[in-house]
Specification:
Chain lengths: 242, 185
């Protein structure tokens, strides 16, 4: 049934079709859970209405922010290589997404998460919980001070190790901008084997998941500095011609 | 030249419990004040291919307020939005695979029928799985353009069963028999 065009009005942001090779395969060889949990039926393409082209406004009024310095200090400093992450969040136009709520979590330097399901034998670091929740500034930027995460083996996977990586969950301007992704570190030999990093068919899309290390001379004396960019779905609508 | 959206990835199995803030599954209250409208409880069980329930799966919802208005600048009626309704919630499934939200019955906004957007995230889901829940017995369901995009034989799978004056049940099957329809975006 055709919708009434006056009710499918042009909102501030629109979203185009997914460029499939730039997104991961849904069922990934060697990652068995993906075959149990992803739909076998074709996905439905829907018309986009206000409901999908709006989304939670001012998310920090509902989700408490958690500080961006998660490495600790002095005697309570987390074990591991200190690092600073400079993240930028852009939309498909390349415009900064300000006020985006970003959740960031990762394993400790030994590859262990603080989570009831992580029964890995790697040690817990009492000075590292490993979760931040921050808002981007006017430039779409945020900064995190943390320690570099360790690699860890995936149980019962035939020798699959996750390379060091950082998880992100982001809220953009609209419901369709919602994104969960992971960031990797340059030149780690485990990157080439990782079944999650290598799930997008496009080599360019995979390359963009790897952070860039700045020359150490450009950062503070005690920490490595990495830069990373995340692009959220959605671009500003071109106003309709009268 | 537009930029290409970053490739998504699974949350993995270790999404921090701290991210599921207390009260996040109760949309009937926002910053201590009560939202307008008829309260509803929406619950259901999330199952994988072999029929076993999934624990710790993240469910997020987004919906209009009781008047059918979205508290968002894209909505030309935003100034009518209920200031005490946030519209978004998050919870995780329990050991029995059950999720549960308290919310208010969203208003219809023709051509859209009353509906709730859901987004599922979990270990093994490289991309989030978006779906939409409708309410049993709503005359507007037949005219909803999103529900109409779903093959006719599968539409009933998106309609939550009414289990009482204020309770709706919406079970979700990720794959296999009775598989819930999901959207590509």
């Amino acid at each position: 049934m055709a919708a009434n065009p006056s009710d499918m009005r042009q909102p501030g942001y629109v979203a185009g079709a997914v460029d499939e090779p730039t997104q991961p395969l849904r069922v990934v060889p060697g990652y068995k859970e993906t075959a149990w949990r992803n739909p076998a039926q074709p996905l439905v393409r829907r018309p986009l209405t206000l409901s999908e082209l709006s989304g939670p406004l001012e998310p920090a009024r509902r989700l408490s922010l958690l500080g961006g310095d998660i490495a600790g200090h002095g005697e309570r400093r987390a074990i591991g290589q200190l690092m600073h992450l400079r993240l930028r969040v852009l939309d498909e136009d390349g415009s900064p997404v300000s006020g985006a709520l970003v959740e960031i979590w990762h394993a400790n330097a030994a590859g262990r998460y603080i989570h009831p399901n992580d029964d890995d034998h790697a040690p817990v670091d009492r000075n590292f919980y490993g979760a931040a929740r921050l808002l981007t500034d006017e430039r779409g930027a945020l900064a995190l001070r943390t320690i570099k995460p360790g690699a860890y083996p995936v149980p019962n996977s035939g020798g699959w190790w996750r390379p060091p990586h950082i998880h992100f969950s982001l809220f953009g301007k609209i419901w369709l901008s919602r994104l969960v992704t992971q960031m990797y570190f340059p030149d780690n030999p485990l990157n080439a084997q990782d079944r999650i990093l290598n799930a997008p068919p496009s080599a360019e899309a995979r390359a963009r998941l790897i952070a860039r290390m700045l020359p150490p001379s450009e950062g503070p004396a005690d920490a490595l500095v990495f830069e990373h960019q995340i692009v959220l779905r959605g671009r500003k609508a071109t106003p309709a011609q009268p | 030249m537009p930029l290409i959206p970053t490739a998504s990835a699974t949350t993995g199995p270790f999404f921090p419990p701290r991210y599921v803030d207390t009260g996040c599954n109760d949309l009937t209250r926002f910053e201590g004040r009560a939202a307008r409208g008829a309260p509803v409880e929406i619950s259901g069980r999330v199952l994988q291919e072999d029929g076993s329930p999934l624990e710790n799966l993240i469910v997020e919802i987004w919906q209009a307020d009781a008047g059918g208005v979205f508290r968002h600048p894209a909505d030309p009626r935003m100034n009518e939005a209920d200031p005490d309704f946030f519209g978004w919630g998050r919870t995780t499934t329990g050991p029995d695979g059950m999720y549960r939200f308290r919310s208010v019955l969203p208003g219809a906004r023709p051509p859209r029928a009353r509906h709730v957007n859901l987004q599922l995230m979990f270990s093994g889901l490289m991309r989030m799985l978006p779906t939409v829940m409708y309410f049993e017995g709503e005359p507007g369901n037949d005219a909803d353009p999103v529900l109409a995009a779903v093959p006719a034989a599968r539409r009933a799978l998106l309609v939550a069963r009414r289990e009482g004056a204020e309770r709706y049940r919406f079970d979700i099957r990720l794959r296999g028999e009775g598989e819930t329809p999901f959207f590509d975006l």
